[in-house]
Amino acid sequence: MSLLDIDERILELADLVDLDRSPFDDKKAFDRPVDVGFIEGGCANEYNVRTLRDFRRHCRILVSVGACAINGGVPAMRNTIGLKECLEAVYLGGPTLEGGGMIPNDEDLPLMLDRVYPSHEVVRIDYFLPGCPPSGEAIWEGLSALLTGREPALPYQLFKYE
Amino acid sequence: MDDATIRFTVDGIEIEAVAGQTVIEACDAAGIYIPRLCHHPDLAPAGQCRVCTCTINGRNGAACVTPAMQGMVVENETKPLNDDRRAIIEMLFVEGNHPCVYCVASGDCELQALGYRLGLDAPKQPYLWPGRPLDTTHPDIILDHDRCILCSRCIRASRMEDGKTVFGFEGRGIAMRLNVDAQGGLGETQMAAIDRAASVCPVACIVIKRDSYKVPNGKRRFDVSPIGSDIEAKRMPRT
Ligand code: SF4
Ligand code: SF4
Ligand code: FES
């Protein structure tokens, strides 16, 4: 969503790029290689890993965007507790539970990973845009650098971990 | 030039020191910032973190514990030294738990500020996610071991400034931990929120309760300007 914070520059962007796959168009799968991919969020389950690997396969340049992609963010709070303890606390010991509760176990649910992993611990990442979220300015700086063949370099005021 | 004046160069800039000053003290006074983490101007130097490592007469040494000497040649702002410093900062990030996103110190944290200054966009080492306890036994202070970077500032402040022995280290290497001198946690020690030891922590390990967010995010020290810019400002107008 932070991409929308680039405001009217989105029109400039539309002139510069062909958007292939994004939450805007809800396209489910790649059908061609693309130049630049932005990935957000860490890997909490095997579906996330498949999506990330799919991006890596189809994107010439892959950019890790935001704190969750870079260090797991809030979902990674479970990493120091342990998956089992976490699931038990929520589904077996939750204060609003009635009649015991059970840990969800359905074949349609993606398998949870032991930990939440940042993107670069799963695939090779070319560039990182830190921030929670990175500001529209930071995203624009990173994107416009890549589109014009510059190395992305965020000025101090845009370089934030939060 | 009187005999007590020591002259040496840092990155080719000649500066003066008085006898007894360390390299980092002389540079601070001269407006040259050497990155540092365990060093605090009010505390005895410890040489613990090695972030301040400079090349001094061709050999690497910690600037916070090296005395200034006549004619020494110091290199500070070089790519290899800053790469090593970034690697130390990286290791501290992955060896502890540092979610800046929901940390009370964000914007006011020296570890984070060094990450910003040294351009650390993401650590290259894998995160270790250690399980570390949170000590909430004290009525006024939280001890969040997730954030501790083992700089020993609190240990030095407690012993030398407060005349207490609240903090110490236990274990070695990656198993090294900060501990307090009471079985029941910080609440059972002599620690008080007004102690010097409570205000020297460079990260959010020692946190005073009910004291956070007085300065809102976005307006904190390192939101406004990079770490070290106060020191560098002393050198600024060179006309
Ligand atoms: S102590 Fe500093 S580096 Fe660690 S999480 Fe808090 S702001 Fe980030
Ligand atoms: S609690 Fe703070 S001051 Fe003490 S060793 Fe840990 S990081 Fe340093
Ligand atoms: S600041 Fe010199 S070793 Fe830490």
TrEMBL record, chain A:
Q: Which residues form the NADH:ubiquinone oxidoreductase-like 20kDa subunit domain?
A: 1-146
Keyword flag Oxidoreductase: yes
Q: Which GO terms describe its molecular function?
A: 3 iron, 4 sulfur cluster binding; metal ion binding; oxidoreductase activity
Name the SUPFAM superfamilies for this protein.
HydA/Nqo6-like (SSF56770)
Sorted alphabetically, which keywords does the UniProt record give? Answer: 3Fe-4S, Cell membrane, Iron, Iron-sulfur, Membrane, Metal-binding, Oxidoreductase, Plasmid
| Cofactor requirement | [3Fe-4S] cluster
Q: Which InterPro entries match?
A: Hydrogenase_assoc-protein (IPR051349), NADH_UbQ_OxRdtase-like_20kDa (IPR006137), NiFe_Hase_small_N_sf (IPR037024)
This protein's name: NADP oxidoreductase
Q: Which organism is this protein's natural source?
A: Lichenicola cladoniae
| Taxonomic lineage | Bacteria, Pseudomonadati, Pseudomonadota, Alphaproteobacteria, Acetobacterales
TrEMBL record, chain B:
Q: Tell me where on the tree of life, at the top rank, the source sits.
A: Bacteria
The record's keywords, sorted A to Z, are: 4Fe-4S, Iron, Iron-sulfur, Metal-binding, Plasmid
Domain (4Fe-4S His(Cys)3-ligated-type) spans 80-119
Single Gene Ontology MF annotation: metal ion binding
PROSITE patterns under this entry?
2FE2S_FER_2, 4FE4S_HC3
| 2Fe-2S ferredoxin-type domain residues | 4-80
Q: Which family does it belong to?
A: Belongs to the complex I 75 kDa subunit family.
Name by which UniProt lists this protein: 2Fe-2S iron-sulfur cluster binding domain-containing protein
Q: Which organism is it from?
A: Lichenicola cladoniae
